[in-house]
Amino acid sequence: MSKQYFTEQKITDTLETNYMPYAMSVIVSRALPEIDGFKPSHRKLLYTMYKMGLLGGALTKSANVVGQTMKLNPHGDAAIYETMVRLTRGNESLLVPFVESKGNFGKVYSRDMEYAAPRYTEVKLAKICEQIFGDIDNDAVDFVDNYDGKMKEPALLPTAFPNILANPNLGIAVSMACNICSFNLSELCRTTIELIRNPEHDILSTLPAPDFPTGGELIYNRSQMEEIYRTGRGSFKVRSVWNYLKKERIIEVTQIPYTTTSEAIIDKMTELIKAGKLKEVSDVRDETGLQGLKIAIDIKAGVDPEKLMQKLMKMTPLMDSFSCNFNILIGGTPRVMGVRAILDEWSAWRSEGIRRRVHFDLSKKEARLHLLLGLKKILLDIDKAISIIRETEEDAEVIPNLMIGFGIDEAQAEFIAEIKLRNINKEHILNRLKETENLEKEIKRLQGILKDPKKIDAIIIDELEKIIKKYPTERKTAIIGEHEVETFDANEQIEDYPVHLFLSREGYFKKITPLSLRMGGDQKFKEGDVLRQTTQATNRQEVIFLTNQCQAYKAKLHEFDDHKASLLGDYLPQKLGMAEGEVPLCLLLPGDYSGHLLFVFDNGKIAKTPMESFNTKSNRRRLTSAYSDKAPLAAALHLPRETEIALYTQSRLLVFDSSLIPAKTTRGSQGVAVFALKRGQTVIAAKTLEEANLKNVSRYQTKALPGAGALIKEEDALERQMELGE
Predict the structure, then answer these.
(1) Which residue range forms the structural domain that includes residue 377?
(2) Percentage with pLDDT > 90 across the chain
(3) Residue 295 sits in the same domain as residue 364
(4) Is the pTM of this model over 0.85?
(5) Dist CA 613 CA 626 (whole Å)
(6) Is the dihedral of CA 276, 278, 281, 284 positive or negative?
(7) For the chain, what is the domain count?
(8) pLDDT at 490 over 80
(9) The pLDDT value given to residue 3
(10) pLDDT at 355
(11) What is the pLDDT of residues 438-460, one digit of tens each?
């Protein structure tokens, strides 16, 4: 009998017992920041540095900090050091760095610049951390056990400013994430002050836009920013800062968006140069050094640097978007909040921290006053106190005897008993008793604070005002309005001129200029191939190819090289990536996508759909299910306006007004019957009446559909029209 080495378990049970605890741990204890602005890894590291005396102390090797942090953070030295790197001033990841650094910590704007090993670098806490740890020993926050229960660590850090919005913060949890942009510290503190004073304060008046450590220029849209401030979601664009050295013909990029790196920008530009799409640039170099970021772009003679940078902003990460997702843990629950809601939540949390701090101070002062009041009682008879202590035979009876002799409690008696012999004099005791008046005043003041929320608000405001004064910060990211930004128009860079288009039956396509057409002689086709369609256009126009597999392929005419009549041209199935056996049947020039498109099927039916249905916002090249597959397509006509159509079979011709065909909203319509076909007949072509150039129009016209048409006279035959057209 074989042994069973596995047990069956429902997938739902596996997810519930194994995956869900992991997912919740990542969300609550790892990836998302809390209201103090820190993730657990940041908090553990900074608290360890604080306990090591690195706030205002000398620098120490990073390896020392990493080793000590492992008592709180079990995730390994590499993860801890990587966390530290991001917090340092040297890395420039944060607008308000918490760690002063010495040595190479890499740069946030460089993907390839590696930071040095922790044995080489040195760190200490930055001065701003005084505002992080100022209340840590005053019971302002809760402390919890570390992972092995042998130490205590703070559940949150009592930040005196809204750090949650002061620094950028990216977190990827399970099924959710957060991406918080940073704001200027002075503006943020000022906005918090104004919101405490007036909950209806216009935030944008004091906090106009985010600010980033890498600088750049933020392209400002007020409604866009209002949406982000209100919902915590949305995006905005930041572009690079550059200057032009006219004599050397060099563009120097000195600030880039926070979301990209210098390597990513250079890689994209190199790719465009190799593809021949950036002919204005002769070279691009990374000249980043001790002075900071610098990307040097050598441009060719005659190139307008403004126009080139507009092009580069559109085609490379020199301009990039920042997508906001203000997802924050509030009381252990993830919440997506706007700026106002976050600042309100922080103010409420900070109020509770100050209330706890005040209560802690009050308790200490009340305990001190209580002891001094006991001391006051022995002042009435110091000799009696000395007598009680001297006449008590057992040490354990000293405290009870003092309690009985003076009517004081155990704490007061303990305090009196511990007074040194030399201090049992009237002068010393009177000096101690002078404290009572000050203590009573201070206790009354603290009690008043606890009873009045406005006084707590005043304390928060006062602390924020001091931070603004002590740590003044200038904006690094400039703000420019959308109307000030000139965007790159690719069409302006494309030369526009008339062209003749030729499509063969086997799928060869040629774009020929009028001059080349006149000079080129006869059209060359592959053996057995013939011309299917020809028309005139301009080089900037868009073209749509309909294929035998009901697909549509969109392209720009400027993407095709100009050809000579003596060449075969571009093979469209290969150039446009068509499927095996797929060939184009016809081409259309959609223009501004106005009007309608007629799909003429060989069974005599015609489908009429809006041309707008082919207008896509994305740059998709292929559109599937472009038309119905119920019958072969005989022709397709783009009608900017209603007009008369000539429909051909092998022997008959029908002329009708396109307005008689009802329009359908979907491209997959099978159409309506238009030509009442005789047995063995199929529709083979369709033209507008203007193109058909018929001699006997009234002979073939009908005012009702479907129509039977009439036999084609020789002068109106399709072959005759093709000869005239050629």
Answers:
(1) 345-470
(2) 51
(3) no
(4) no
(5) 9
(6) negative
(7) 4
(8) no
(9) 64
(10) 96
(11) 899 999 999 999 999 999 999 99
Q: Check: CB of residue 84 under 8 Å from CB of residue 99.
A: yes
DSSP state of 481: E
Paired sense of beta strands 295-299 and 177-180, if any: unpaired
Residue where one domain finishes, among candidates 317, 337, 364: 317
3-state helix, strand, coil in the chain (%, to 5): 40, 20, 40
- Residue 679 backbone zone (phi > 0: left; psi -120 to 50: alpha; other: beta): beta
Cβ–Cβ < 8 Å for 190, 202: no
Q: What does the buried/exposed string (b/e) look like for 110-146 if buried means 16 or more CB atoms within 10 Å of the residue's CB?
A: beebebeebeebbbbbbebbebbbebbebbbbeeeee
Using one digit for the tens of pLDDT, what is the confidence trace for 576-601?
888 898 999 989 999 888 889 899 99
Q: State the pLDDT confidence band at 423, using cuts at 50, 70 and 90.
A: low
The yes-or-no verdict on residue 724 having pLDDT over 50 is: no
Separation of alpha carbons 262 and 286, rounded Å: 7
Q: The CATH number of the domain where 154 resides is what? A: 3.90.199.10
Q: Which two tokens stand for residue 95?
A: 């607008």
Cα separation, 433 vs 545, whole angstroms: 99
The per-residue DSSP string of 453-468 comes to HHHHHHHHHHHHHHHH
Question: What is the C-alpha to C-alpha distance for residues 131 and 50, in angstroms, rounded to an integer?
Answer: 12
Query: Within this chain, do residues 377 and 457 fall inside the same structural domain, yes or no?
Result: yes
Whether 379 maps to a domain, the answer reads yes
Catalytic amino acids? 120
Let me know whether 551 and 649 are in one domain.
yes
Residue 626 has what pLDDT? 87
What's the maximum distance between 2 C-alpha atoms anywhere in the chain? Answer: 146
Q: How far is CA 411 from CA 61, 281, 375, 407, in A?
A: 46, 83, 11, 12
Q: What is the pLDDT of residue 185?
A: 96
Q: 546 and 624 in contact (C-beta within 8 Å)?
A: no
C-alpha span between 121 and 87 (Å, rounded) = 14
User: Looking at 317, 333, 361, which one is the last position of a domain?
Assistant: 317
Q: Is the pLDDT score of 251 beyond 80?
A: yes
Residues 596, 565 share a domain: yes
Q: What is the Rg, in whole angstroms, of the alpha carbon atoms belonging to the chain?
A: 41
